[in-house]
């Protein structure tokens, strides 16, 4: 309620910063484990809740339900790093881990609103309007024109 914890800041910075994903996972594990190298589920649960706030902050809340029980069944304590390196569950968070590199992604298409001839970062494509695409700036500002509506479902693209 108006306050940030040190843990929240560490979780956000570890998620948003550039770097090797394995190094990031090691750092995160150091924050959610005890001195014996065992994951503390309450800290892991807290970390996941903090990370899930990131997409919500840009109005892209998670499309799945989160429960502590599902995490306990998916992540055995002693196998965190090995398991997350190969786990499908981690793919949910890849968007967040690659977020710092998105400004470098180039899309050679025109934005349907501002008419810029190429896009850097995210590209959003309408699922209802034929060939309607927005750059991330126009999408995040809620711009729409022609037959397109902000109520239409958009698909996010981070690669060309």
From TrEMBL:
Transmembrane segments annotated in the record for this chain: 79-99
Example GO BP: synaptic signaling
InterPro entries: EF-hand-dom_pair, EF-hand_dom_typ2, KCMF1/Dystrophin, Znf_ZZ, Znf_ZZ_sf
The organism's place on the tree of life at top rank: Eukaryota
Entry keyword set: Membrane, Metal-binding, Transmembrane, Transmembrane helix, Zinc, Zinc-finger
One Pfam family from the record: EF-hand_3
GO CC list: plasma membrane; synapse
Example GO molecular function: zinc ion binding
Family annotation (PROSITE patterns): ZF_ZZ_1, ZF_ZZ_2
Entry annotated with the keyword Transcription: no
Domain ZZ-type: 106-160
PANTHER family listed in its UniProt record: DYSTROBREVIN BETA, E3 UBIQUITIN-PROTEIN LIGASE KCMF1
Protein name as annotated: DTNB protein
Gene: Dtnb
């Amino acid at each position: 309620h108006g306050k940030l914890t040190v843990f929240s800041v560490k979780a956000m910075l570890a998620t948003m910063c550039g770097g090797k994903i394995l190094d990031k996972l090691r750092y995160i594990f150091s924050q959610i484990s005890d001195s014996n190298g065992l994951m503390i589920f309450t800290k892991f649960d807290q970390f996941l809740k903090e990370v899930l706030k990131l997409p919500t902050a840009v109005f892209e809340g998670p499309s799945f339900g989160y429960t502590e029980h599902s995490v306990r069944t998916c992540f055995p304590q002693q196998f965190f790093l090995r398991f997350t390196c190969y786990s499908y569950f981690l793919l949910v968070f890849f968007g967040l881990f690659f977020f710092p590199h998105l400004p470098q992604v180039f899309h050679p298409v025109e934005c349907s609103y501002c008419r810029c001839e190429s896009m850097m970062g995210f590209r959003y494509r309408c699922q209802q309007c034929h060939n309607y695409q927005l750059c991330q700036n126009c999408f995040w500002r809620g711009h729409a024109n022609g037959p397109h509506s902000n109520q239409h479902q958009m698909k996010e693209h981070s690669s060309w």
